[in-house]
Amino acid sequence: MEKELKEQVAVKEVKEPLKKLLLICSKANLEDVYAALVMGNGAVMEGIETKIFFTFFGLDAITKKTMNKLHTATTGNPGMRMPGGLPFPTMLGGLPGVEAGVSAMMRKQMDALDIPPVDEFLELITAGGGEIYACKLAMDMFKLTKEDLHDEVNDVITVGQLYEMCDGPGVQIVFT
Amino acid sequence: MDKLIAGVNVDVNEEGYMNDASQWTKEVAEGIAAEEGVELTDKHFELIEFIRNKVANGETLTIRGIGKSGVVNAKEFYAMFPGAPLKKATKISGVPKPTSCI
Question: By C-alpha distance, which of A50, A70, A51, A52 is closest to A60?
Fold first, then answer.
């Protein structure tokens, strides 16, 4: 009896690899979108079954018109720094063109690190078998149709359909 | 540690990556590939050569970079090394495990 119990405990200690990952991206900030894309692509690279669900403002990341023009917030962002590391004055962040300029600079730096633009990143993820989904409710809210979305988007689905896809053991859901 | 691959003693780390790229031969590659469940074709060897050259030049390997190598695109790369392509391809190419996140 005792031996049997010990064996059961031993079985529990075996490391189970992550099999399936669902990432949810609800924001349009450059950094939030890239967090989802980098983690999603990284999971695909490891052979993990990966699905990324874009909802609310996150839809910007898969909408043709907006996907490659994402911004980072220059106001209300305490992590913002001037080049060189000095604090970035919030007042400056509100000036016209500053946010666009800072965002363009960030995109340029990412490109130098071989981080692809959003559309190419989606293609890379789907090339490896990752799947991209859009939230139906948010699509209705923003009056978007499937035609507005990038070709790599697999489907527009409801929350219920999303959870159905997340069945089975070894699944993680991550909200970025 | 030394591991017998294709009849030769090859210096590998605990994850099976070769410590000395100069020990790499086609036969060793085929031995590692068999363990990884990959059957090597001419296309594989063409890509392996690309990977070995990249690493020898001290460049970072990414799936994006391999997709733009002119040898294969990203989709073909995933199909050639199913599962974790970058890890498998580097292991078979006799170069260190890649440290890139993308």
Answer: A70
Rounded CA separation A126/A128 (Å): 5
Domain regions of chain B by residue span: 2-93
**B102 and A114 in contact by Cβ < 8 A?**
yes
Is the CB of B78 less than 8 angstroms away from the CB of A127? yes
Radius of gyration over every alpha carbon of chain A, rounded to an integer in angstroms: 20
Instruction: Report ipTM for this prediction.
Output: 0.89
Handedness of CA A39, A40, A41, A44 (dihedral sign): positive
Tens place of pLDDT for every residue, chain B, 102 residues? 888 888 889 999 999 999 998 999 999 999 999 999 999 999 999 999 999 999 999 998 999 999 999 999 999 999 999 989 999 999 999 999 998 888
Is residue B63 less than 8 Å (CB to CB) from chain A?
yes
Subunit contact A45:B73, Cβ cutoff 8 A: no
Annotated active-site residue B1? The verdict is no
Round to whole Å and give the CA distance between A73 and A32: 11
**How far apart are the C-alpha atoms of A35 and A16, rounded to whole Å?**
24
Nearest to A114 among B65, B73, B78 (CB): B65
For A106-123, give one letter per residue: b (16+ CB within 10 A) or e.
bbeebeeebbbebbbbbb
Nearest to A124 among B63, B84, B101 (CB): B63
- DSSP secondary structure string, A87-125? B--HHHHTSTTHHHHHHHHHHHHHHHTTPPPHHHHHHHH
Distance CA A137, CA A139 (A): 5
Q: What is the number of other CB atoms lying within 10 angstroms of the CB of residue A60?
A: 21
